[in-house]
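Entry details:
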Amino acid sequence: LDSKIKIDYYYSSIQLRAIKTLKIIQKFLNDEKEFIKAWQLNERHYGSLTGLNKIEMAKKLGNEKVHQLRRSWNLRPDPLSKESKFHPLNIDIYKEVPNKNIPDTESLKDTYFRVINFFENDIKSKIGRENILISAHGNSIRALCKYLFKLDENQITKLEIPTGNPLLINSNKDLKIIDCKYLDKERAK
């Protein structure tokens, strides 16, 4: 990561791993300005699969079904019971999120509309004038990539988002991408 990059606005989901990642980046950049935490940038809600690892999911549903649920555009896992300790309604960090906005399950399509609505209302107007850094999750970043790179529903299901390799996107204010590159060239594909 080029420590000479100047960031004007930082955004993070409200989930701890994105917040911790953002704080590590800020420390590296020697920039500890306040950042915006937005529940709309959270990871996709996996419904009844929440709290299970991949092996447990596969035992419950089979590998093929898990792959379909994780990568399809519009399939949702079964809803998570509102009584589950994993349901956002029962987790303190979600207390500020209106209950009507907390799903019991989501598809990638649902995640896309949640992320892009926030992007269009809160971030898009800064693009082309300001440097923005977003610390989020595989599916929320995948949704944003679908929008920015104009990917179709088939392309988005195949897109891999590498963990811990920032993607630098240069665009104009109309979101026309000028160039983009992963900052860790060794891990870029």
The chain has a mean pLDDT of 92. The helical segments are 16-29, 54-61, 63-71, 108-123, 138-148, 153-158. Strands lie at 9-12, 36-37, 132-135, 167-171, 177-182.
